[in-house]
Amino acid sequence: MAPLTLAVDTTTKTASGGKMHIAQLETRSKPFASLSTRGEEEKPFDFLRTVFEGVIAGGTAGVVVETALYPIDTIKTRLQAARGGGQIAWKGLYSGLAGNIAGVLPASALFVGVYEPAKQKLLKAFPENLSAFAHLTAGAIGGLAASFVRVPTEVVKTRMQTGQFSSAPNAVRLIVSKEGFKGLYAGYGSFLLRDLPFDAIQFCIYEQLRIGYKVAARRDLNDAENAVIGAFAGALTGAVTTPLDVIKTRLMIQGSANQYKGVVDCVQTVIREEGPAALLKGIGPRVMWIGIGGSIFFGVLESTKRMLAERRPSSSPPHLNPKQD
User: Fold this and answer.
1) Is residue 249 predicted with pLDDT exceeding 90?
2) Would 113 be classed as within a structural domain?
């Protein structure tokens, strides 16, 4: 991804042409990835508290988003699952919600609980001009950790959304009995192919835009601003990764029929039988769902993180305790 840029100059010459002062933030070309993260570096790193707050904030944000936007996700899944010119059903748009929330809660909690400490550790390990790579790497690590919960949840959800099962417990029981435990991880490779880049890119775009906005505004952002940035990051990433999402959906719903031999065969078959445009099925609902979802997720996430931070026991005077993202 080409580096996004923001004009920043941390030095200003004196009238006599002497020393450079590192106090003012004026405009000059410098990459987003080089913006300072020292406020985070100066604060003592409390691993357990960071994990705990990430788990609470991530779980809360994930459940709110899933509940609010589940019907859009169902429509998207049915569009992608329809072969050729098949019609989709408009009933039961909340089918599988309860079972999905049971998986989304721990998956979102695990993702953010891993992402936050990984991000802070990587920001300290990477040079300051490579903070974007720290965010990319932390997003991929968080996505990998959450995938062990996300994939079975996604398999059950997509099959319920396409009318294969009527309840989550029934879906789990029948999938395991017919396909074995590995049936719950159908399409795992395609899921990682879609979600690891998605998580890495979305969180990188979000974090870098947020850093740049804070520097330009010279203040902390409010919930509405975090939500707008989250919506943009989600919609853009969602559009780019739609073909990967289509392949993931087809592999997850095939069950024991084994229509496709793998990711490559699935891509070739879809293009051969339905044309290249089939790889963009559901892009409208997906962009809408992830854009709105990104707005809600990041708005709730930052709001929850802030409330949890305000409840921390203070070990130093407020003016000595720099604010941490």
Assistant:
1) no
2) yes
Quote the tokens at residue 215: 């520097």
Q: What are phi and psi of 124, to 5 degrees?
A: -80, -30
Q: What is the pLDDT of residue 230?
A: 95
DSSP readout, 4-62? PEEEEE--EE-TTS-PEES---EEEEEEGGGS--HHHHHS---HHHHHHHHHHHHHHHH
pLDDT above 70 for 127: yes
CB 195, CB 150: distance < 8 Å:
yes
Please give the pLDDT value at position 280. 93
Confirm whether 324 is domain-assigned: no
- C-alpha to C-alpha distances, 306 to 132, 185, 191, 238, nearest whole angstrom: 23, 35, 32, 27
Report if residue 317 sits inside a domain.
no
In whole angstroms, how large is the CA radius of gyration of the chain? 22
Task: Give the tokens for residue 223.
Answer: 């919930």
When divided into structural domains, the chain yields a total of 1
* Model confidence band, residue 25 (pLDDT cutoffs 50, 70, 90): very low
Write out the H or E segment, with its range, that includes residue 261: none
Name the phi and psi angles at 20, rounded to 5: -95, 135
CA distances from 59 to 65, 125, 247, 275, 300 (A): 10, 27, 27, 39, 10
What are residue 21's DSSP bridge partners? 12
The enclosing domain of 288 has a CATH number of 1.50.40.10
CA separation, residue 200 to residues 143, 259, 271 (Å)? 8, 30, 27
CA distance 248 to 190: 5
- pLDDT of amino acid 144: 95
Split at pLDDT 50, 70, 90, the class of 19 is: very low
pTM of the model as a whole = 0.71
318 domain residue, yes or no: no
Give tens-digit pLDDT for 56-97.
999 999 999 988 888 888 888 888 787 765 667 777 788 778
| Domain limits for position 203 | 47-310
